[in-house]
Amino acid sequence: MRTIEKKSLKVGKYVNNNHVDTVIRTYKQERWVNNSKHIGKEDSMSSWYSVEELEEFLDTVKMNGGDGIRFYFGAYPTDFALKPEYAGRQTIVLVATRSKEVDNKTVNKDLYTNTEGTPQILAYNLGALCPPICPPPGGGGPNGKNKSFDIGMAIVDNADKGLTLV
């Protein structure tokens, strides 16, 4: 009998408050401010999905032979009619992947399914963007306080326009 050992596909790890604060603060200072200026309104900082819908997506990925998810950064077109409040803002698109060995390396290929005879990418999008859809004050965070805007708080120097707290 031959035994095939399956490689672990894990690449990430749990991180602490300091790590989260640092990467979000860096993003705000180096990307978000310029993105917001470019689109003429506050760009989104996050995209929220319920555990229920993520579990459903994961189940669908597994049922179709997938073993991972790639998170693509994206932006809605300025004329996005489906949700006009999202127009121009950045988003995250979840795309199912399947690992494959190529030249002794593991590569993760986007996963397509057959939908009515046409290949269709297995993907998920349109989460609750913040902004414009942000949690109300007082919910979540340590001790019941909403900390969603405290994370990664940054002071940005806008030259002759002064300082901005983001």
Q: How would you characterize this protein structure?
A:
This protein is α+β, with helices and mostly antiparallel strands and 166 residues long. It has two domains: 15-43 and 140-166, no CATH class; 46-130, no CATH class. Helix content is 22%, strand content 30%. Strands 2, 3, 4 and 7 form a four-stranded antiparallel β-sheet that branches. Strands 1-8 form a two-stranded antiparallel ribbon. Strands 5-6 form a two-stranded antiparallel ribbon. Strand 9 (155-157) and strand 10 (163-165) form a beta hairpin. The longest helix has 23 residues, at 17-39. The chain is globular. It starts with 16 loop residues before the first helix and ends with a strand.
Tags for this model:
single chain, about 170 residues, alpha+beta, 2 domains, 4-stranded antiparallel beta sheet, two-stranded antiparallel sheet, 2 helices, globular
Distance between the termini: 60 Å
Strand content is 25-35%
Order of helices and strands: HEHEEEEEEEEE
Structural class: alpha+beta
Number of strands: 10
Shape summary: globular
